[in-house]
TrEMBL record:
GO terms for biological process: methylation. This is Class I SAM-dependent methyltransferase. Residues 60-152 form the Methyltransferase type domain. It holds the Pfam family Methyltransf_11.
Length: 272
């Protein structure tokens, strides 16, 4: 899920070519529907169903990828417009009933002022390496949402690459890349790491970026906590999914655990 770029050679809408190639592989839909990725999907649903306006609402899903989240949002009764810079994603999402999909950039949304009840950025901030670009994307979301409406954005945790490589017993091989991501926040991933160039947020960064975009009072929700680092996670999810979700919900905003989670959703309402 992406709608943005890092610095470097541009492509569609200024999107980094490496990032575009990664998403053109067409694996994003499957990633969230299978294996460990289901925990991210289920927890995203859990958080958003509590913070979004009740359906029917007009939801703009920015950087919505192939429409994994747009699909369940539309099934819940929302009117969903998906905006993404990857043509493959727009083509895939346009096949989903109740979802309108178009090409676009998170930093320059093709959406009228105050026209949405909620704007989601469940991926754009991953690939905007410059803080100014991330704040600009959030400011665009704030412009597009009505006063009192919700803006919610996903970020990747600063130590996600470190924990992932340790979990997969690959830290020794990728130590230089991983240590640099911890120090600077910029992950220069290689293809065999399973991801692409990304910005990894410190736990305290998203609320500050929201505030600078005119969205004060943001709250962050850790999606996976420490559970994603457990062995046999698939088995645990099959055996006791509801207990896992209940436990994560209970600690989702604990400051000491936000930095452990692989993904964090931060949400705020546009001031009236």
């Amino acid at each position: 899920m992406v709608c943005g770029r890092g610095r470097g050679a541009g492509s569609l809408g200024g999107m980094d070519r490496e990032v575009l190639r990664y998403y053109e592989r067409g694996e994003e839909d499957r990633r969230l529907r299978e294996g460990d990725g289901r925990l991210e999907l289920w927890r995203t649903q859990d958080v958003l169903r509590r913070v979004l306006p009740a359906p029917p609402a007009r939801v703009v899903d920015v950087g919505g990828g192939p429409g994994v989240h747009a699909e369940w949002l539309a099934a819940d009764g929302h009117a969903v417009e998906l905006v993404d810079p990857v043509p493959l994603h727009v083509e895939q999402a346009s096949r989903i009933p109740g979802v309108a999909a178009r090409l676009g950039d998170a930093r320059d949304l093709p959406v009228p002022d105050a026209s949405a009840d909620a704007v989601l950025l469940l991926g754009p901030l991953y690939h905007l390496l410059d803080r100014a670009d991330r704040v600009r994307a959030l400011r665009e979301a704030a412009r597009a949402v009505r006063p009192g409406g919700v803006v919610a954005a996903a970020t990747i945790g600063r130590h996600a690459a470190l924990h992932d490589m340790l979990r997969r017993r690959r830290y020794r091989d990728k130590r230089a890349i991983v240590d640099a991501s911890v120090e600077t926040g910029v992950l220069r991933a290689t293809p065999d790491m399973g991801f692409t160039t990304a910005y990894l947020h410190g736990a305290d960064e998203p609320p500050r970026e929201f505030a600078d975009a005119g969205l004060p009072g943001a709250r962050s929700y850790g999606l996976e906590g420490a559970v994603w680092m457990f062995g046999d996670l698939e088995e645990l999810l099959e055996e006791d999914r509801e207990a896992v979700l209940d436990a994560l919900r209970a600690v989702e905003s604990a400051p000491s655990l936000l930095g452990v989670s692989a993904h964090v959703i931060t949400a705020a309402t546009r001031p009236r």
